[in-house]
TrEMBL record:
Residues 45-196 form the Thioredoxin-like fold domain. InterPro entries: DsbA/DsbL, Thiol_disulfide_DsbA, Thioredoxin-like_fold, Thioredoxin-like_sf. This is Thiol:disulfide interchange protein. Its main location: periplasm. The keyword Signal applies. It comes from Vitreoscilla stercoraria.
Amino acid sequence: MLQKWIATAVLALGFVGVSQAALVEGQDFAVLPKPVPQLQQDKIEVLEFFGYFCIHCKNLDPTLLAHVKKMPSDTYFRGEHVVWRPEDIGLARITAAVNASGLKYQANPAIFKAVMDEKINLSNPDVFKDWVVKQTAFDGQKLLAAYNGFQNQAEAKAMAQLSADHAIQSTPTIIIGGKYRLLSQDMNKLDELIDKVRQERGMPAAQIKAAVKMPATGARLAKAANQ
């Protein structure tokens, strides 16, 4: 019986080793030529550059946000809208408002549907304001208040600068630890890259997060994480 237990344990360890070894540079991930500064230096950041106009982002969003809820307590999520064209700044403003209000899980499906399926020009501030107060799937007044907030336009401009500084060319682009770009939409590979960053930094083993909580600090740092 002891020999059988040892053989089983060795086999299990072998599978772990194979899983870790399966992470291949150029196939599963790429190393960024220029690191992206994290918002929280003591944790592992999962950053998504996305677009509300992007069908791949729309399809990935439910899976990614569900996965974010299960991420360990040493890891947090940050969403930034790409700005490639002048009209994208309007969608970046919506993103900043969604982050600031904490309504990502409730509002994102409706926003994606409006932009992608219903072809509503939410990048236009007047159109967005008229649309958002009519929504029932989330608190439209709360989102509008964040959209009209003092820092909203500055947040959107920061997204534009970030898109340019790091030459983001496609969406969704997922970056882990400010260093690695995920080359697929495989959540298992995402977790493996989080583990890779954790090991490289010499961080303690991951602790399961009891609940998704919003940090209480400044608008950009506080509201971009765990939305």
